[in-house]
């Protein structure tokens, strides 16, 4: 754990990218964020200087020095996601992966179940953890986990065995969380069995708090109108302006979010925000679990060109209702352009009642009170 101020050289790739955001006015200089940027610079340098060789003989005769990862924690809006974005895009390590913690654990559970099913058929009693760790070690030297949070006893009892093997094989962990390691699985059932994992985590990462004095995520929305009514260039320009404010002008790129073994395409993503056309979200075969995934993957979502709904758009209307319900429950910030005023969106008798609730939620989601709230901890997204 950090006990003394870190020396921040300012010339590492993360620090340089952070300084560029300050220079363009996207961020205010924050000492805690500067310190964390320096820590991430050190990790990037160590990974570059100590490449991990995956061959057995290479590991035997040319073992790389251990690289200590990082665990960044702080309240919502303290810049953890932003710093992870800068680090992940800057680090040169080719075998890297970034994933939401709960999605990662879902994959582990699926892998264990599949291994056990096959092992039972052939009378094999091998360790399933070793089997699921093997492909991770092969493909990911750097593992970046967003929103590290332990809710249930199943994950709590698994983490020690899982990360013992990952760390022993040179996997470097960089994680973000709303809680310090000692607060993980607080008051959980049989928590004393979980405590060795906390010590393992602290032994393999530098724990850095981000006690920033300002909530930058909320400040993006102060005094902003998050909805545009109408169609065409004027509405698009309003949304472009909001998107620039939300992302700080950082270059947005396409990405994807995994859900139930499928990839949900995200046309634009940056700084914890995502931007979609309405058709991307509601005219494709997405369901409630997909929307839960998106609500956990991003703290802000912008949607362009929400139409007025009619009988010919019943399926799209139902998906839109589900989407808004899940964003609202999680506390995700919403920006959107609507073809007509919100109260006139739902014209289909089959969904009129549901739309009344959706309209109410949309109005609340544009209020200063909602925009000032933190994300709600709704637990892990279902597999």
TrEMBL record:
What Pfam families does this protein map onto? AFG1_ATPase
User: What Gene Ontology biological process does one annotation of this record name?
Assistant: cell division
- The signal peptide, as residue positions, is none
Q: Which UniProt keywords apply?
A: ATP-binding, Cell cycle, Cell division, Nucleotide-binding
Q: Which PANTHER family match?
A: AFG1-LIKE ATPASE, ATPASE N2B
Instruction: Quote the protein name from its UniProt record.
Output: Cell division protein ZapE
From which organism does this entry originate?
Answer: Devosia rhodophyticola
From which lineage does this chain's organism come? Bacteria, Pseudomonadati, Pseudomonadota, Alphaproteobacteria, Hyphomicrobiales
- What gene codes for this chain? zapE
